[in-house]
TrEMBL record, chain A:
One of its GO terms (biological process) is dendrite morphogenesis. It comes from Scylla paramamosain (Mud crab). This is Protein Abitram. GO terms for cellular component: dendrite; filopodium tip; lamellipodium; nucleus. InterPro entries: Abitram, GCV_H/Fam206, Single_hybrid_motif.
From TrEMBL, chain B:
Its EC number is 5.4.99.25. GO terms for molecular function: RNA binding; tRNA pseudouridine(55) synthase activity. It comes from the Eukaryota. InterPro entries: PsdUridine_synth_cat_dom_sf, Pus10-like, Pus10-like_C, Pus10_N_euk. This is tRNA pseudouridine(55) synthase.
């Protein structure tokens, strides 16, 4: 009647023994980030905009061979053809690219496009339950040695991610995110400003408000307590939401 | 004379003798009797209505063969007519041939044969076979009958015609007419069914074991079409709403409701004559035995760190072999043989968490079980079989419980405190003093956001929970174990590793070092139910 195969389980089929006898006391026990999450990477495309510098990054999607022109169409596809669980209350981001004030506002110093860099690599950590964490890749300029992060802001032009409200299991009312959606703006001590993009489709569940009071956390624990946002991808689409991402292996190869 | 005239009217219209008796207003046990009882009772009713009560007493004492009174002439005629209309119609096969002949050989226009063929030997055979096939061990049974909608319609129509022809006829029988038809069928069939199956027929509502009988009439839809004329608006809209009224445009409730609104004269305009003779009698479209659910409770220990509580499937594939539920229920169901079962427990632990101590209370609900009579010995033997079949779980205090006891489970889940032991790792080491300080801490209230590992299927919320007490023991310089008792609904793992900072305060903060959890055990579920069985 016993249909299990206890002997083949990784751990012995523990009986009523002491807890320390039922597991391997392994000092290399993987951290929470390592146990539950798989790292994927999103490399934003360089945009043609006045005064911007920066190399063209390698293509990220095998098989779709996008050009700059083609990218416009692809992004339209993102918004329209990928069917997501959209409800009437969400704030749809039709133009979720760099929607930023051209002139300075009372709170922000005068900025121009060229000083806001959105090319930094993003690491999307995907949980075994498909939930996604938006975090900085360790190659992100804000994490470069000697750099210091002074501010994290969730006000990204048209949207304020702090205004996000969700209710129920389905996270109704969430702000909808696409790979190009802005998540936050990171300001460094040297004046550089970085716009972080979401990298995946889905509903914005929460942003990490602890970074408002404690931006240092982002450099200390970028792949754990310093996460930026939590996104719930649509359930039906299988691996669809991960389409714009590359695996950690592919990322290592590309960047070495 | 009222009684005789009404009797003739009903007989002419095509009612069987039991239906006629119901129309005449009889509501006593006479209705359930055999045909000779029916004849007697009919004579009684007729005479009563004729207003000659004295002669009725005399004639009844002479066992139904009264000679001298005016009423007796009628009663002889009645007897003949009752006899012919019923005896010839107990076999269904006759009705088709005879449908063109005079009505007394035909299916009753009121009950469409429910009180004719429906009470016959053939019908009873079908019923007793379905009870036997069910294989249930119940000692008693009751009956539930569902009739086609056209019966309501026919009976309404007959009443309007009756009252039109005989306005002084007492109308109070109209209200409970259909209910009475069902009662009559049940009480005629029930005792015979009891004799055939060896189970006791129980009158009235008895929900433990019921045979649900659904009667249908082949031309039900045709008959009911007249409702379109009678009550144009109501049924026209229903016809259009195909999804909502796919199968039941003309339901019994709808027809009853419609007739409440219609006056008798409106009905007579559309239906000036009696309903037609049914082409055939009703049949039993479905016979379902339904046994009330049985509940068994117990407590389980879980010793494996690789066993889910319920079967776990990801994209159609089973993720881990077996489950607590299957290890318990597969063996129980081999004996109980239920159609379906539901496993619930007072909270649950993760796949990789052991459940020690007295174990976690659980209940198994068996739906439509075949076997419900289980002795104490049999239950003990089932428990032993489960415990001998695997080392991964253990069951204790197995017993049958009642539905009303189930609420204990929920109460346990939501209110009772739990005791845990967490084996923790401090990769960079920890201070012994920090460990000792834990046991001196007063009750600690923590704020837990919905853990990321369940956030995909639970609403985002922050919940306050209380850690009631803690006590820690070192294992070595990097590992220690923490015993803690907490309020129900506390996420222990997240309290230890902080869930990326989303549970505060957390153990790492309190101890001032990085900690993570490597193993967790439930040491006790503080619920005193189900009662101990002393094994």
């Amino acid at each position: 009647m016993d249909t299990t195969s206890p002997e083949s389980a990784m751990l012995p089929p523990a009986m009523e023994g002491k807890i320390e006898d039922t597991v391997d006391l392994n000092l290399q026990y993987p951290s929470v980030s390592e146990r539950y999450w798989t790292k994927y990477y999103f490399i934003p495309k360089e945009r043609k905009k006045p005064g911007s510098s920066g190399e063209e990054k390698g293509s990220m999607n095998e098989g779709t061979g996008e050009t700059e022109k083609g990218m416009e169409n692809v992004m339209k596809e993102d918004d329209e053809t990928e069917k997501m669980d959209v409800d009437s209350n969400h704030t749809e981001e039709k133009d979720d690219r760099l929607c930023l004030p051209r002139e300075g506002t009372a709170e922000h110093p005068k900025v121009t496009y060229s000083s806001l860099d959105s090319s930094g690599h993003v690491c999307v950590m995907v949980h075994t339950n498909k939930l996604c964490l938006v975090t900085l890749s360790d190659r992100h300029p804000a994490l470069a040695p000697g750099q210091e992060i002074t501010q994290v802001s969730y006000e990204v032009g048209k949207f304020n991610r702090l205004d996000n409200q969700v209710s129920g299991k389905g996270k109704r009312g969430a702000q909808m995110m696409g790979p190009q959606s802005p998540v936050c703006i990171i300001t460094c001590a040297d004046g550089s400003r970085h716009l972080v993009l979401a990298g995946v489709h889905g509903k914005l569940v929460e942003v990490n408000e602890r970074l408002l009071a404690n931006p240092k956390l982002l450099r200390e624990r970028p792949d754990a307590e310093g996460y930026l946002a939590v996104i719930l991808p649509p359930i039906k689409n299988g691996d669809g939401p991960l389409r714009r991402l590359i695996t950690a292996e592919q990322y290592q190869e590309m960047c070495s | 004379m009222l009684g005789r005239d009404v009797h003739a009217f009903l007989e002419e219209a095509g009612c069987c003798s039991r239906c006629t008796l119901i129309f005449l207003g009889t509501r006593s046990d006479d209705l359930y009797g055999d045909l000779s009882k029916i004849y007697e009772a009919t004579e009684t009713a007729v005479s009563r209505l004729n207003g000659q009560s004295d002669e009725v007493q005399n004639s009844r004492q002479n066992s139904g063969t009264s000679e001298t009174t005016a009423g007796s002439k009628c009663s002889d005629g009645i007897k003949e007519k009752c006899l012919s209309s019923d005896e010839l119609v107990t076999e269904k096969s006759d009705t088709n041939e005879n449908s063109t002949k005079k009505q007394k050989f035909a299916v009753c226009v009121a009950c469409i044969g429910v009180l004719q063929w429906g009470c016959s030997e053939e019908a009873i055979k079908q019923l007793s076979e379905s009870i036997k096939d069910g294989g249930h061990d119940a000692d008693g049974f009751s009956l539930s009958l569902s009739l086609p909608a056209s019966i309501s319609l026919r009976i309404h129509r007959l009443w309007t015609l009756l009252l039109q022809a005989h306005p002084q006829f007492p109308v109070k029988g109209r209200e409970d007419h259909i209910g009475t038809v069902k009662d009559v069928w049940k009480n005629v069939v029930g005792p015979q069914l009891g004799a055939a199956t060896g189970k006791a027929f129980i009158h009235g509502t008895y929900h433990d074991f019921v045979l649900n009988v659904t009667c249908t009439y082949v031309n039900d839809l045709e008959d009911c079409k007249i409702m379109d004329e009678l009550c144009q608006t109501m049924f026209a809209t229903r016809q259009k709403q195909h999804k909502k009224y796919a199968n039941s445009v003309y339901s019994k409730q709808a027809i009853d409701a419609a007739f409440k609104k219609l006056s008798d004269s409106e009905v007579l305009k559309v239906c000036p004559s009696p309903p037609s003779t049914p082409s055939e009698a009703v049949t039993f479209a479905s016979l379902q035995c339904q046994q009330a659910p049985m509940y068994m409770a117990g407590r389980y220990n879980k010793y494996s760190r690789d066993l889910p509580q319920t079967p776990w499937f990801v994209e159609g594939e089973r993720k881990l072999g077996s489950s607590v539920q299957e290890l318990i229920c597969d063996i129980l169901d081999q004996t109980v043989c239920a159609e379906d079962l539901k496993f619930s427990s007072s909270g649950r632990e993760d796949v990789d968490v052991r459940c020690l101590g007295n174990g976690r209370p659980f209940v198994v609900e068996f739906i439509n079980p075949q076997r419900t009579k289980l002795s104490g010995d049999k239950i003990s033997s089932l428990q032993r079989t489960i415990n001998n079949s695997t080392k991964l779980i253990r069951v204790r205090d197995l017993q049958i419980v009642e539905k009303k006891d189930l609420k204990n489970l929920k109460e346990g889940e939501e209110e009772k405190t739990k005791a845990y032991c967490a084996l923790c790792i401090a990769a960079k080491g920890y201070d012994n003093s920090a460990l000792e300080a834990l046991s001196k801490m007063p009750q600690l209230v923590i704020q837990q956001k919905t853990p990321l590992r369940v956030l995909h299927r639970r609403p985002l919320a922050t919940r306050a929970r209380t850690i009631l007490s803690m006590k820690a023991h070192p294992v070595d310089q990097h590992f220690f174990k923490l015993h803690l008792t907490t309020q129900a609904g506390t996420y222990i793992k997240e309290f230890v590793h902080s869930d990326l900072g989303r549970t505060v305060p957390n153990l790492g903060e309190i101890m001032g070092c990085e900690v993570d959890i490597i193993a967790l055990d439930v040491e006790n579920v503080a619920l005193d139910w189900p009662p101990k069985c002393g094994d």
